[in-house]
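Me: I hope this is not a bother. Any chance you could explain this protein sequence and its structure tokens? It all follows right here:
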Amino acid sequence: MDWENLRAFLEVARSASLTRAGRALGLDDDGVRNRIETLEYRLGTVLFSRVDGALVPTEAAGKLIEIAKAMEEAANAFIRQGSADTNSSAGMVRVTTGDVIGFEVLPALISRLRDQRPDLVLQLEIDNDQRRRLSSAAHIAVCMFEPNQKALVSRFAGAVHVGIFAHRRYLEHAGMPDSIADLKNHALLGSQDETQTIRFMAALGLHLTERDFAFRTDSQIGHIAALRAGVGVGVCQAPLAAADPNLVRILPQVLDFTLPAWVAMHEDMRNDQGVRLVYDALVDHMTDYAAGRLFGPTTAGTA
């Protein structure tokens, strides 16, 4: 049995989509489909049926998902243990997080760790699917939700304020929004899947559709790049926005919510010196980030 076919099976079961599963696996739709069809041939059963455009596990597949998850965790534990050196602070440490934290927040810490421990190798794995990070072969995960999986050691690093921002250059010609309703008259930035943003804004009394967004991208880094370029009004983590004096907070008393920052590692890695060194450093670094000590005060929730 080819493990890569089982990985494809799990990713399709999780995402209900060939395309989303392919992004996680680095494959196109045909590549994922071929792996599923090969597995179905080997097992002699159909694993997915299409319902309202989504791929839904069949009854036979439903009985196999938990077994496949256990195999995945065993494979990942094998990789973690195989790359660990519990008697040394050197070696490779794999860290997984989303692209915003990975590309914008962690490089300063990585540089500092490399200065302190030049024999330490850090591998940064970017995955914007937060749940998948905790089931990966990475030693440590930085998440914006509280991990509840078993066999994890996790620490809360603080609440990261998130708000609506725009570049000064954009506001000079478009004007400052004076109410939530006024945002509809501005160029809004968002992702290609607007469900979460639309629901969040609807809860605040602003009802949007996909047509209300002037720019959309699946990349969170692309979203921030557009914000910094003055394309329009968009969501940004307040501690990150503090690094750019040209980004202006909009309606902070109303448009302010928080994301809990957590750092987690697998329990079987807690005695590995290198992993523990990076884990403790990540907790301190993310605590400073959430508190606004990395890039300057966030002025979250103030005018």
